[in-house]
Amino acid sequence: MGIIAWIVLGLIAGAIAKAIYPGHQGGGIVATIVLGIVGALVGGFLGQLLLGSSGGASYAALTIPSVAFAVIGAMVVIFLWGLLTRQSA
């Protein structure tokens, strides 16, 4: 998958994850893309770990399963980022 496809997948996954994850995450378009790309990696790893395959995600194309796994991964990353940056009051 070319770098442009990774950026597009990251943008789509990050935007969807931010839209459905409760609360305010902050960050701009660059943060959303980075979040989505990291989420795509995490989602692919989770799909490999849980399903024993890529779970239908394709390396060569933007497919619905690849976006779904990227969104799930991005939501995991949002959750973990929230835990790491939470300040005690």
What are the defining features of this structure?
about 90 residues; mainly alpha; 3 helices; globular
Task: Describe the fold and architecture.
The model has no long low-confidence stretch (mean pLDDT 74). This protein has helices at 3-20, 29-51, 64-85. The longest helix has 23 residues, at 29-51. The chain is mainly α and 89 residues long. It has 3 helices and no strands. The protein has one domain (3-85). The chain is 71% helix and 0% strand. Helix 1 crosses helix 3.
Report the sheet with the most strands, covering strand number, pairing sense and barrel closure: none
Mean pLDDT: 74
Instruction: Report the total helices.
Output: 3
Computed over alpha carbons, the radius of gyration is 13 Å
Distance, first to last CA: 44 Å
Residue windows where pLDDT falls under 50 for at least 5 positions: none
Structure class: mainly alpha
